[in-house]
Design a protein that fits this description.
It is built from 4 helices and 5 strands. By secondary structure, it is α+β, with helices and mostly antiparallel strands. The protein has a single domain, classed as Gcn5-related N-acetyltransferase (GNAT) (Aminopeptidase), CATH 3.40.630.30. The protein has a 5-stranded mixed β-sheet with strand order 1-2-3-4-5, sandwiched between helices. The longest helix has 15 residues. The protein is globular and about 40 Å long.
């Protein structure tokens, strides 16, 4: 049986479909956010003044994954970079190419916006995702440090 996969911007009226995916993503990374942060994030996706976007991955018409990305300037390049901040595919939709399709769609958006690169982070132990990422991009070996303020 063929699976119909569609990638498109997540509509403003799709919050109820996005919520469980967002919750699954946060649970995967063993974190929680205050509701007002999730509300603000959702609002930003649909504000034309904001440089952050949400693409949805739809399997047989149902939202089954997302890619959140943003553009920013760089001190190392004349063109902007595209940061793929969040990528998630529901467990029931894994293995049908949705993750790859979402990354490819972000890359197409970046190319159309004249960005010179797309980059993303994942945890070193995220073996399933890394198997895909290693086929699609270069692992430059950086280690992330974070100081919460």
């Amino acid at each position: 049986m063929d699976t119909d996969v569609v990638i498109r911007p997540v509509g403003e009226d799709e919050r109820e479909a996005w919520n469980p995916l967002w919750a699954g993503y946060l649970a995967f990374y063993k974190t929680a956010l205050p509701q007002d942060i999730s509300d603000l994030t959702w609002t930003r996706f649909h504000d034309p003044e904001e440089p952050i976007f949400a693409l949805g991955g739809y399997v047989d018409g149902e939202l089954a994954g997302f890619a959140h990305y943003l553009f920013h300037r760089s001190t190392w390049a004349t063109h902007r970079y595209c940061y793929l901040e969040d990528l998630f595919v529901a467990e029931t939709a894994r293995g049908c190419g949705l993750g790859r399709a979402l990354i490819d769609a972000v890359c197409a958006k970046a190319l159309a916006a004249n960005a010179s690169r797309v980059y993303w982070l994942t945890q070193s132990g995220n073996a399933q995702a890394r198997a895909l990422y290693d086929k699609m991009a270069d692992n430059l070996g950086f280690i992330q440090y974070r100081k919460v303020l």
